[in-house]
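dude i think i finally got it to work??
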Amino acid sequence: MSDPVALPAIDGRSPAQLAGDEAWWGQVRALYDLTDEVVMLDNGYWGAMARPVLHAYQQATATVNAGNAWFGRLAFPPLFDQARVQLAEALGVETDEIALTRGATEAMQALIGGYNALAPGDGVLYADTDYDSMIMAMQWLRVRRGVEVQHIALPEPFDHDSVIEAYRQALARYPRTRLLLLTQVNHRNGMLLPVAEIAAMARAAGVEVMLDAAHGIGQVETPLRALGVDFVGINLHKWIGAPVGMGAMYVRRGRVRDLDPYMGEADHDDIGTRIHTGTVNFAAYLALPVALELHQRIGVANKRARLLYLRNRWLEALAGDDRVQLLASPDPRLSSAIASFRLRGQASMAANTATAERMVRQSGVFVVPRDGLASGACLRATPGIFSTPAQMDALVAAVRALSASRTPS
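look at this
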């Protein structure tokens, strides 16, 4: 029987050497059935399933549907436990430190809302680059825990030292801060936050960190434990390529009781009592091992190198165009697959939405508007591991065509 996730040999090449090998990545692309209706550059929403994962998911759906409750109650639980073990191994953590969820948002809301080491008058802190649902959860702590909620805007353009300094100043300005929200890779401009450095600084100030790793796990090679954070929300359907509706919650061993039991769950020292997802998508979890196998076969360092190769292609092509404002850093320490831009002077959500609509209508290039940065709205472009240099060039051509057609103000 052929290997369902077979790929050509890497032959000892480094990730940097492999990044531009179009033949090798063409074999990766061949594992995906992708639309050709548009140039798809919104691959940050979720990652398309490779064909082996899709087939596993479809077969599992048929099995679950045929077996119904008999399968769900008897056959599924040990398979679910096995998937959890494999995920923990892939993340380099212990199985009892991981709970499977329906996404990073569910995990992060349970972590933020459940954190019980806050007293009235304590402070919590977030940034403009954090995700909307997590920001709302932090704001809700004002009602839930009686805390003071503060927020900061990260520098733009951003560089490593200025980002570190922004958090250092914020912790000094708000000395009552006891909880800090960090986003490993944010969904607005794609900055890869120096999490380990900021977390160490926070820890020295007596501040706990909640890490949103929705866009980090799967495209950043830093091991989870090396981040120095005890509470992490994870997505499995973005950069690992599992079926949609899958995530995980990490709580370092020994920290479970710093979270309240989830909505009346029994108060056991068990991460499973800190989240309750109800009836899950059985087939999705049955397909998770195949997604993990393919993810590991390609290699996260190779994924990252390829994604940065594609990202840098379009950013470097537009770098000298004064009509376009690029919201990205050339520093690889801060770089991810995601990067954003706006046409110069267009900072409203309405203007960026209109630009995105024109791009797809006139050039067939699909990007997505994002709001929430202190500087205003922007357009996010996100290649996937199956994207091509030609698609990056199509993005550049589309942006240039739109900027050239603008009427001077």
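The two ends are 64 Å apart (CA to CA).
im so relieved honestly
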